[in-house]
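Q&A log
Question type: sequence-to-structure
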Amino acid sequence: MSKNDLTKRLLADVLKRLVKKKSLEKISVCELVEAACLNRQTFYYHFQDKQELIWWIFDYDFSHLKDKKDNNILLDDLIEHMCSEKDFYIEAIASDVQNNLRSQMLPNV
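Response status: OK
Response body:
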């Protein structure tokens, strides 16, 4: 795994951990990078904003589920994975901020 991917995974893991304590809207980029022992510039090198990180997490999780199924992902697998990380996904989907995960997943709704 490249250094860029490791940094992105670290930010993703820290965000998922923080979401267990407070809502996504109340987690600042500053708090996220501090918890990850990184600086803001590192965050913004990889992501435009928190929403882009959230999209990246979903895309990363989804692609790794597909890899395990030889590109034949089943909806049940995705739902099972989202339930296993329900604190994060409930927050990400319920969020009303602009460019939220719900609008990414369902662009025409």
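Response note: The radius of gyration is 14 Å.
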